[in-house]
Design goal:
Layout (H helix, E strand, L loop, with lengths): L2 E5 L6 E5 L11 H10 L12
Antiparallel strand pairs: 1-2
The protein binds zinc ion.
């Protein structure tokens, strides 16, 4: 399986996600997801955490 390294727009932390969920995985943790949604409710996204 392919993995993609992304950078969390909230905290700047780099995290790795599976390629197939790359478009949905925007934030590194649920905390960052909630922080972002607190400011901007337009999108529904899933936090993805992996090794
Ligand atoms: Zn983050």
């Amino acid at each position: 399986m392919e993995y993609i390294t992304k950078t969390c727009p909230v905290c700047g932390h780099e995290f790795v996600v599976l390629e197939k969920v790359e478009k949905k995985a925007i934030y590194c943790t649920l905390e960052c997801l909630l922080a972002a949604q607190g400011k901007n409710n337009r999108e529904k996204v899933s936090p993805i955490i992996s090794a």
